[in-house]
Amino acid sequence: MSNVLNAWFSNVDWLDIWLATVDTLLMMGGSLTLVLLLGLPLGVLLFLTSPKQLRASHKTYTAVSFLVNILRSLPFVILLIAMIPVTVFLTGTSLGVMGSIPALVVAGVPFFGRLVESALREVDRGIIEASLAMGANTRQIVLGALLHEALPGILAAATVTAIALVSYTALAGVVGGGGLGDLAIRYGYQRFQLDVMFITIIFLLLLVQILQSLGTRLVQHFTR
Questions:
Q1: Of 116, 198, 206, 207, which is least surrounded by CB within 10 A?
Q2: How far apart are CA 162 and CA 153, in angstroms?
Q3: What would the pLDDT profile of 174-224 be if each residue is shown by its tens digit?
Q4: pLDDT in tens, 8-28
Q5: What is the pLDDT of residues 51-108, one digit of tens each?
Q6: Concatenated DSSP letters of 58-106
Q7: pLDDT grade for 29, boundaries at 50, 70 and 90
Q8: Distance of alpha carbon 103 from alpha carbon 55, whole angstroms
Q9: Sign of CA dihedral 222, 148, 30, 164
Q10: Sign of the four-CA dihedral 141, 146, 148, 154
Q11: In angstroms, rounded to a whole number, what is the distance separating the alpha carbons of residues 112 and 107?
Q12: Is the pLDDT of residue 121 over 80?
């Protein structure tokens, strides 16, 4: 069996594959943590300030929504390159895992924030009105009613975001971001080692399937 694998994947260094996979997981995990922490408040802000909501503010919603739309419309590769000076200032490098995380966060936060806003809009308006009738303030409504009721939708949004970040980590390889994408570009594309390209694709597909499976289970668990 090992002879067959060596014959089919003669260019594959399995240690490099393992290290690249770890780098991809670190980039995805680190950026996802920050995206969730920053994107959730952003989504709540978008929802609360939107028309006919608790803290409706046309100016605030328009300004925040405009910024979110700009960041979401930028192709990630362009954002990655444009942020190199900022990334170097924040992390001291534009390469590897640390050099990719700032751009991943900037790309992921508005993406997740919009999905959170959509999830909150799915909450029955009657729950908000009932909370107001009982004298709850905005903070109590958000924490005690809105986020609780929208939890399955938010978990689904987090799953979609995590999968999107996996794709972004692959694109980060274009500028030496590390991970499986970097391996695929340096060996699979530039050196025409198709076996390396094939293995990186398989590992990325497996990672996406695992994330989707975990996300689906969490959504099902918290859906009443």
A1: 206
A2: 14
A3: 777 778 888 888 777 777 778 888 888 899 999 999 999 999 999 998 886
A4: 666 777 788 888 889 999 999
A5: 888 888 899 999 999 999 999 888 888 888 888 889 888 888 878 888 889 999 999 9
A6: HHHHHHHHHHHHHHHHS-HHHHHHHTHHHHHHHHS-SSHHHHHHHHHHH
A7: very high
A8: 31
A9: positive
A10: negative
A11: 9
A12: yes
Residues making up the chain, counted from first to last: 224
Domains assigned to the chain? 12-222 (1.10.3720.10)
Q: What is the pTM of this model?
A: 0.89
d(CA 159, CA 151): 12
> Letter for the amino acid at 6?
N
Residue 155, token pair as written in the block: 């978990």
Tokens of 205: 């597909």
Name the E strands within 105-184: none
Q: Are 71 and 114 in contact (CB under 8 A)?
A: no
Cα–Cα distance, 163 to 41 (Å, whole number)? 21
Q: CA-CA distance, 11 to 127, in Å (whole number)?
A: 59
Cα 9 → chain centroid: 32
